[in-house]
Amino acid sequence: LVGTISIEKSELLSSMLKRKGIPHQVLNAKYHEKEAEIISHAGEKGMVTIATNMAGRGTDIKLGPGVVELGGLKIIGTERHESRRIDNQLRGRSGRQGDPGESRFYISLEDDLMRLFGSDKIKALVDKIGLEEDQPIENKMLSGAIENAQKKVEGSNLDIRKSLLQYDNVMNQQREVIYSQRRQVLEGVDLKDQIMAMIDDVISTVVDAHTGGGKEYEDYDIKGILRYCHDLFLPKGMLTEDQLTNISKEEIKEKLSDIAHKIYESKEEEFTSERMREIERVVLLRSVDTKWMDHIDAMDQLKQGIGLRAYRQRDPVQEYQFEGSAMFDEMIYNIKEETVKMMFHVKLERVPQRQRVAEPIATNEDNSVKRKPIVKPKKIGRNDPCPCGSGKKYKYCCGRN
What we know:
Layout: E1 2-4, H1 7-19, E2 25-27, H2 35-42, E3 49-52, E4 73-77, H3 84-91, E5 101-105, H4 112-116, H5 119-129, H6 140-186, H7 192-211, H8 222-232, H9 241-244, H10 249-271, H11 273-305, H12 316-345
Parallel strand pairs: 1-3, 1-4, 2-3, 4-5
Helix pairs in contact: 5-6, 6-11, 6-12, 7-8, 7-10, 7-12, 10-11, 11-12
């Protein structure tokens, strides 16, 4: 049984054996439907089977007649895998159920494992010991160096998985918040209090943004506040600049919130409470879904380029957590803003009633309108007197043309 680490290597080895005229079977992902048949013959006398390390696992290779006497199944590893566990699984294909068997691995300093992890040290050891290319490596130092190279790869892969898990934890925490909100909407929870709280939060954020850190009333951007509120919920002309001038920031928030709540209550009276609750669910669910999908795309883009922060001596995971949290807070605000805006702009459609413009004159027994009889006009002959009263024949008068 010849073990390879990839489909490409198994195909290459198969072509080499074909050129030498050695009959064999290939077991990899391309031939997985023939796996049972190939394994059933793999233990027969004189059979050569090329398999990737992942193919055919979990199935015993039963030895055919006469194979036990010849030493059982011989395992040949064309190169060492990155993981010692995979190598041990390949060794474990032989010697099962008390059957005899042996295994041997071949390595090259040009293998990926040797080239990326420990090539220089191992090459120095080979030169020092004076090994030939086809000489078995029995030296413990050299075997230990190969094992250390595998440990380095396993440690590197473990660090990669840990890093991915830390990135995923950020998204999992955000996902739990969003799914909790969606679950409340889908379960039909009364959302009126949440909508009212959203209105207050949006107004508070807007006022804070336009008043800044200044304590003087002259620093307040009253025009900007009104412009934003007109777009959000406030009908034009209901509130003037003079009414918001020379009052504190908190008083502005309270005045705007009171007006917004009154407008919302009047809209609820127009729609009825039952219909308003349904509209709240539909609008909030739509806002959450659209903003969450946009946020996922934005987080993917952030994750792709965050590794470059390491060149600035910054931890990419911490940077991802910090910026991801800021982006999530921005998404939450955008959900509130869009929900509030849509709730104030929703309108009740009134279907116009068609009016009867004419009364039917007469009806039949089935209430359908009685039709008037069609009267055909009398046809004038060519030699008849012309109806215009000239006294001439029709063909010489009006009927001439």
